[in-house]
Amino acid sequence: MIVYEYPLNERIRTWLRLEDLFEKVAFFIKAGDQRSHHAALLAIFELADVMTRSELRSELIQELERQKASFEPLRGNPEVDGERLEAVLTSLSNTLAELHDQVGKLSQHVRDNDWLAGIKSRTGIPGGVCAFDLPGYHFWLNQSVARRREDLRAWLGPMLPVKNGVAVVLKLLRKGGIGGRYVAEGGLFQLMLGGRVAQLLQVRVANDMPCVPEVSANKYAVNLRFMTVGTNQKARTCDQETPFELVFCSLSGCGV
Description:
By secondary structure, the protein is an alpha+beta fold.
């Protein structure tokens, strides 16, 4: 199955973007070659841009505290796995402590680094980071893999409390998913929400189905339109029956 995720508010949209960027940074740092480490640095620049939202940390702390408050009363409940509950509470407490310990603006260390700023200013220009444009950067790319990894991890390090917070919240969000199986006739599907509340929708489609979902939703209904996939043609509505799973994910004190 291919899982397509659709955030239903700005907070979740931002957290999904951060998750994607953190995963890319980790992948490219591990890869080790020059081009991968260049890609890792570009992803760090993108993380720094996303983190300029002044309310990002406070929103993340607020959600983590809300989750912690909803889980704590479950202690001693015989219907709840106590070991898993304590693991969740420990994760929430540790992540909150990391975020509270942070000082200053998120990713300010990247913006205050003149050498990084010089590289970032050239990344928007096609071919702008060639060796003749940035000889200092070319020198860095020719240092040892260990040296480059050390620098990349140093630039990434102050951002890790946000990474950990986002990971905890999104894990709880996805574990709180409730859904069912449906079929889109002629590529179209509508479902009245009937009081359902969600922050994230997951649409799961078999790998061999040659179509992708487009989603629109409001407080009354979810509308899906499955579009054909083609790299050399204009997308159109899929005219065949399309089976899929639709999952409503919400943050609440459950899932342990």
